[in-house]
Amino acid sequence: MDRFGDVEAFLAIVERGNLSAAARHLGRSLQAVSRSLAALEKSVGVELVRRTTHKAQPTEAGYDFYRRVKPALSEIAEARAEAGNRSAEPSGLLKIGGPELFGPSYLIPIVARFMEMHPKVEVELSLSNRFVDLAQEGLDLAIRIGELPDSDLKALRLGVMRRVVFGAPSYFDKYGRPRHPRELAEHQCVFRNTDRDAGAWQFQDGGRPMTVKVSGRLHLDNAAASHSAVAVGLGIGRVPLWQVQDLVDSGAIEVILEAFEQPAVPVHVIWPAARLPLAKTRLFIDFLAANLHIERRNRECVVV
């Protein structure tokens, strides 16, 4: 097996978690994959993967090596395909990250259509509310909601999403509809105790920031539960609109105090600032930008 195959085996072991899964993915024998890993470790002079009976975990040196060789090997693979006139149809594993609640409603339908169009592409979708490190998680791209910190990543602004105050028609019929954020202090409000703005909601009044202290009798630690609580009339909530868009569309809840909303939050797709993203990554970014149905203002591609 050539050195390219040894590195290919190493990448598959790291991404699949053990030698057996890597061997199945590559269509090689377990012994061949094991020999490739041993040969690579002998070549670089350091242990890259710590093996147990059922698991293979990269060492610190192995993780650093993975981060460096993954983009390079991917480009080599694509160059080989192009040279062999096999690049017309993208293939391989595409690893995508995104916010947990954003995934089911927004990403899954787009991923499903993309996979139908490109049957040789395999997708691994990782959903988390953390701002994960793309290199550490081995992601090709990710969706980020909110302002982006300075980094060495590339980003395409997909649009913006509002943070809204909402309630059920039954609640408003019973307790009245607030006309100004200050009136929220007189209402039952529903929020997660873990929210960054729990008990202190932010607004703008005449272009000036305003904080309103709110409270409620119901205490929750789950976003979906808080949305349901508002929908059945237990109080007034405040969340990003994308989290409750289906409830708005169905008429279960109504958005209020729109004139006092803070500026909308940007939504980006980000990817490593390599020399050139792989064909399947480029295709998915373009497909995502064309099919993600959110409010769009000042779409631009930037390095952040």
Helix/strand layout:
Blueprint: H1 3-16, H2 19-26, H3 30-44, E1 49-51, E2 56-58, H4 60-83, E3 92-98, H5 102-117, E4 121-127, H6 134-137, E5 141-145, E6 153-161, E7 163-167, H7 169-175, E8 189-190, E9 200-205, E10 208-213, H8 223-231, E11 236-240, H9 241-250, E12 254-256, E13 265-272, H10 279-291, E14 301-303
Parallel strand pairs: 3-4, 3-5, 8-11
Antiparallel strand pairs: 1-2, 5-13, 6-13, 6-14, 7-11, 7-12, 9-10
Highlighted features:
single chain, 304 residues, alpha+beta, Arc Repressor Mutant, subunit A, D-Maltodextrin-Binding Protein, domain 2, 3 domains, four-stranded mixed beta sheet, 10 helices, 14 strands
* Proportion in helices: 25-40%
Oligomer: single chain
What's the main sheet like? Answer: 6 strands, mixed
CATH-defined fold name of the largest domain: D-Maltodextrin-Binding Protein, domain 2
Q: List the total number of helices.
A: 10
The overall number of domains is: 3
Strand arrangement, major sheet: 4-3-5-13-6-14
> What is the molecular shape?
elongated
| CATH domain class of the largest domain | Alpha Beta
CATH superfamily of the largest domain: Periplasmic binding protein-like II
Q: How many strands?
A: 14
Mean pLDDT: 84
* Contiguous runs where pLDDT drops below 50 for at least 5 residues: 296-304
- Our Rg estimate from Cα atoms comes to 24 Å
Distance between the termini: 40 Å
Order of helices and strands: HHHEEHEHEHEEEHEEEHEHEEHE
**Helix/strand class:** alpha+beta
Work out the strand percent. 15-25%
